[in-house]
Amino acid sequence: MTAETSTAPASTAPAVAAPAPTANAPSASTPQPAAAPGQDSAAQPAKKLTGAELKAKKQAEKAARRAQAIQAKTEKAAAAPGGAVPPGGAAQAGGANKGGAKPKGKPEAGGGKPAARRPSGVGAKPTVVIPAPLKEKDPRDLIPECFSHLPMAKRIPLSQADKDVHPVVLAVGQQMATFTLRDNIRRLEATLNAFKKVLESYEAPPSSAFSRHFVPHVLNPQIEYLTECRPMCFAMGNAIRLLKARISKLDPDTSDEEAIKTLCESIEGFIQERIYYAEVIIARNAADMIIQGDHILTYGGARLVGKALEQAWADGKTFEVAILDDPCDRTGQAMAKSLRQQGIRVSYYPQLGGVSCHLQHATKVMIGAEAVFANGSLYGPAGTSDVALAAQAANLPVIALCETINFDRERVATDSGMYNEIDPERCTEESFRLLFDTTRDKFLNVVVTEYETITGDAPATAILAILRKQEDPN
C-alpha cells in the first residue's frame, strides 16, 4: 500500500511538466518553425489591451486604409489617357500616414506598411501637363494715365454678351465695334431700328406693368451692351433719354400691345423728323449759302457737307471743291468719287499738310460736326480744329453743319482731352491716336441746323436758344 501511494504522484508530475520543455526549450536536432502571427493567440492566451492601446490600434488601421485609398486613386488617375497625376496626391498620402502614426512597440494589425510609390521607369505613363491659356493683353494698359479716362471701342465675343441682349442688337454692336457703322447718325438710326425690333418681340411677364418692367429688365441690357462695344455718340444718348421719357409717360392702365404700338410709332416718327427731314433741311440751308463760282474747302467725308454740295449742284450753281483728308482715316475718298461722278470739279488732298496753301484759293470752309457742346464748342473728327484755325487765319468763313439731335445742353468742353475716344487700331506702346478734337466757338462763324429762322443758321453759342425753340415753338 505504501508503494502504490508513492507511485501515483510520480506518474502525474511528468504529465504536467511535459509542455514546458516543448515550448521554451526545443530540441536541437528538430528545428521548430517560427510561430505565425495568427497562431500566436492559439499558442498562448491573448493579452488584454488597455483603452489607450485599442484607440491607437484603430487609428493606425484607419490611417493605413486611407493611405491605400489615396494611392489607388493616384494610380488610377495616372493610368487614365491624358490624365495628370494630382500634385498633392503624394503629399496627402504622406500626411495621412504621418497623422495616423501608431505608438512605438505596438504591432499594426492588417498591415500598416505604406504603399509603394509608382515607379517612374519604363512602364510608367508620362504625365500630361496642359499649359494655362495666355491672358490677352489689355490695350488700355498702354495708355498714359492722363488719358486713361477716355474710352475705347472693343469687340466683345458673342459668348460673353448678356443673355438678355436681342440678336439684332448683338449685330449692331459688332458693327459699331469694328467701325462698319461709323457715322453718328447712321449709328443712331441702326440703334433705334434695333430697339423697335426689341419692342416688337417683347412679352411682359404676368402681373408686371410694361413701363416698370421694360426699361430696367429689357432696354437697359441692350444699352449696356452697345456702350461696351463702343461709347455712345451724343445723338444716341439724346435719343435714348427721349425714349425713356416717352415710356415713363405711358398710362399704367395701357395694355402692352397698345404701349408697344405707340412706342414703335414714336420711333418711326423720330427717325423721319430728326434724321431724314433734318438732313434735307440742313442740306438746303447750306446750299443756299453757296454762290456761283465759289471754291469750297472741306475736311474728310462729312455726310451733311456732301448732301449740301450735291443740292447746290442740283440747283445749277457752278463751283469747285477741295477735299482735305485724314491720312489715318480716308473717309473723304468716297465723297470725292461721288461728287466727280456728278460732274463737280474736285481736288483731293490725302493729308493736312499744306492746308494754308490750299486755303489761298478757297472762298468758304464747310465742315461737319459730331456734336456741339453747350458752350458752342464743336466736336468733330480729328483734324477739324486745324482746318478751322487755319481758315480763321486766312479770314475765311467757317460753316459747320450739325443736326440738333447732336446738341449737348449739359456738358461743355474747351479742349480735346475732356471728351474723346481712343482709336483701338492705332494704340501701341509708342503712340496712340484720338478719333476727335474740339474746336472753340470763336473759330466758327455759323452753325447750320434744321431749327432756326429763314436762313437756318445761327452762332455756335446759340444752341441753347435753338433747343428751347425746338421744345416750345411759341
Automatic annotation (TrEMBL):
Cell compartments where the protein resides: Cytoplasm, Cytosol
Keyword Protein biosynthesis recorded: yes
Domain of life: Eukaryota
Region Disordered: start-end pairs: 1-126
GO cellular component: cytosol
Coiled coil: none
Compositionally biased region (Low complexity): 1-37, 66-95
Keywords recorded for this protein, A-Z: Cytoplasm, Initiation factor, Protein biosynthesis
Signal peptide: none
InterPro entries in the record: IF-2B-related, IF_2B-like_C, NagB/RpiA_transferase-like
Keyword DNA-binding in annotation: no
UniProt-recorded Gene Ontology molecular function terms: translation initiation factor activity
UniProt feature, compositional bias: Basic and acidic residues: 54-64
Recorded family membership: Belongs to the eIF-2B alpha/beta/delta subunits family.
Complex and partners: Component of the translation initiation factor 2B (eIF2B) complex which is a heterodecamer of two sets of five different subunits: alpha, beta, gamma, delta and epsilon. Subunits alpha, beta and delta comprise a regulatory subcomplex and subunits epsilon and gamma comprise a catalytic subcomplex. Within the complex, the hexameric regulatory complex resides at the center, with the two heterodimeric catalytic subcomplexes bound on opposite sides.
Protein name (database record): Translation initiation factor eIF2B subunit delta
Organism: Thyridium curvatum
